[in-house]
Amino acid sequence: MSVPVLSAQNIGKSYGSGTNRFNALKGVSLEIRAGESVAIVGKSGSGKSTLMHLLALLDDPDTGTLLVEGTDARTLKGTEVNRLRNQDFGFVFQQFFLTANATVLDNVVLPLKIAGVPPRERKARGMAALEQLELADKAKNKAITLSGGQKQRAVIARALVNNPKVIFADEPTGNLDTATGAVVEDILFALNKDKGITLIIVTHDIELAARCDRQIFIRDGREDTTESGAPRKRHAGAHAGAHA
Amino acid sequence: MKFIDIVKTAIANSFRSKLRTGLTVIAIFIGAFTLTITSGIGTGVTNYIDTQVTAIGAADVLTISKAADSTSSTTDGPAAYDPSKATTVSLGNGSRPGSTIQALTAKDITRIGKTPGILNIDPSVRVTPDYIEYDGTGKFEIIVNATATLTTADLAAGAQLDNASTTDEILLPTTYLKNLGFANAKAAIGQAVAIGITDYAGAQQEVRATVVGVQNETILGVGAGLNQTLTDTLHAIEVTGAPAGASDSYATATAHFDAESTPAEITAIKDDLATQGYASQTVADTIGSFQTVINVIIGVLNAFAVIALIAAGFGIINTLLMSVQERTREIGLMKAMGMNGGRVYTLFSTEAVFIGFLGSALGALAAVGVGSLVSNILADGVFSALPGLQVVQFAPTSIAIIIGVVMLIAFLAGTLPARAAARQNPIDALRYE
Ligand SMILES: Nc1ncnc2c1ncn2[C@@H]1O[C@H](COP(=O)(O)OP(=O)(O)OP(=O)(O)O)[C@@H](O)[C@H]1O
Ligand SMILES: [Mg+2]
């Protein structure tokens, strides 16, 4: 079996210090393989976003080890971490984080700009990503003028503009009505199916979670194996089926 | 992120909050404006003095007088009278009326002439003619420019005085032309003017001299220039009928040394003369003290401008800290997307440098505009008596230096906010509300 893209071994994270110290994540172990779609499910405040940030190398775990394609994340150099974040990962954050007064296109090509891609190619790839999300006609509009659903799609366009291996999506449908939410979900799963992009979706929406190959339930900073276990077994079957 | 993209982004960012950037730019503008104006005045005045010095053109001339008596110091009171020594100079030999100075006698002149390094020595003779007249159209007072024989005049027309010539030559200032009845500077060249002078006995005599040139007025001596021949002719008349011995003492003498002399050699000659009891000054010494005063004044003005710029620097710090605060999420996002801290730092310091550039370039531009305008108005007005004086002049290099220095100050001011931005943890930044 190939090396997992991400492998967390008993990772934990606490915030604050002294009496204010709060253990947001108390030791979670998981493995994510290339091409999977994984849902991280749990109640508000259970530590889902914290876990996702650790997996995405946006934050360092206090305890435990994180392996990125078999390499301990702690041994990675700053430039290597930046390269991973820039080229291999795509992010959809819980809030949109669009620059209000910049155009939609400028917002979408930000990862390319950071990567140092020349302007012409940047524009071509940005437009391609926007077309994929049916937003091409809004490319020149200011981000602030978009509707909520359009913003969410713009954010997804930004996440996939770099052709990442893994997309991390934190509540990608949380801000949307069910109809638009369904459209966004379809886009994400299409990317997973057609391009083989690994999806890590944080959600508290059970239906969205059910569409994923696998679910990881988080409760109070720990994995809730009583719930996580069952879908995992289902997943094994589904996986075998997919390959049949 | 490519550097060009960083610069473009930084410029775009600085225009995002136009009011705040605008106010900071105004603060820098004021400092840069002041600095450019003061440096412009410095350049203008220095240039003027430099042209005056080159006009003097006598780097190989020492003005020599007898050193003030060392025994008559302020603490000891006057020295005892010594009949063999003291010779006060009479009027007509170069002394200031009413002043008592130790005179140079013929013996001194020979002694100085023998000093190593001195090529030749001429006792300075000052003549005081009564009037000047052209073509019988009226007599006008004449002031003689004592330094005329030493200087290369800034000519409006004609030629320089020729001291070797046997004809009596005169160089008129432009201001004399109208009163004497010349239409313009050219018309005066080659004309003969009459100069009236009173001899020792009180009788007035007239000497005819040819106008060889017309000179723009300078700060280093106003009045008409006479060549050596004319000076000698007039001096001969002035001392006609004087008792023997009354005319062979002089207040000062001018000596020439080798024009190739190094400053060290010149100092050696001056030291040598000092030990013999003579005080000597080169033209550079005289001008130098004048220039020092001006440099001090300009230095003080520059100090004020720099203080203004330092204050503006704090404005930059404030502006950028606010924009770092405002853009916390954006910084977090960029870092989450793999932008390294160094680039974030560069992004913010470029913004600071750009604000500095904007303020200083606008300030310098405005200063050049206003300065040139004021300078032209002054040149035609208050300073019209000093042709060639442009009080404010701008050297491209000094403007470039000012803009460079302001950008450096801006960069330094930007380091604090830029560091704050570069150090932000992406997650803290993204969670920031
Ligand atoms: N910077 C921080 N300082 C202190 N506590 C924090 C910080 N970040 C997160 N927490 C706490 O850690 C816990 C987990 O937060 P996290 O954002 O991971 O929750 P979540 O599962 O994503 O919730 P939600 O579904 O509401 O987004 C919460 O109780 C939160 O208050
Ligand atoms: Mg969350």
TrEMBL record, chain A:
Residues 6-242 form the ABC transporter domain. Residues 222-244 are annotated as: Disordered. Pfam families: ABC_tran (PF00005). GO terms for molecular function: ATP binding; ATP hydrolysis activity; transmembrane transporter activity. Keywords: ATP-binding, Nucleotide-binding, Transport. The keyword Hydrolase does not apply. One of its GO terms (cellular component) is membrane protein complex. Belongs to the ABC transporter superfamily. This is ABC transporter ATP-binding protein.
UniProtKB/TrEMBL annotation, chain B:
It comes from the Bacteria. One of its GO terms (cellular component) is plasma membrane. Residues 85-96 have a biased composition (Polar residues). Residues 69-96 are annotated as: Disordered. It is found in: Cell membrane. The chain crosses the membrane at residues 21-42, 296-324, 345-374, 394-416. One of its GO terms (molecular function) is transmembrane transporter activity. Keywords: Cell membrane, Membrane, Transmembrane, Transmembrane helix. Residues 21-218 form the MacB-like periplasmic core domain. Residues 69-80 have a biased composition (Low complexity). It is a multi-pass membrane protein. InterPro entries: ABC3_permease_C, MacB_PCD, Macrolide_Exporter_MacB. Its main location: membrane. Residues 303-426 form the ABC3 transporter permease C-terminal domain. Belongs to the ABC-4 integral membrane protein family. This is ABC transporter permease. It comes from Cryobacterium fucosi.
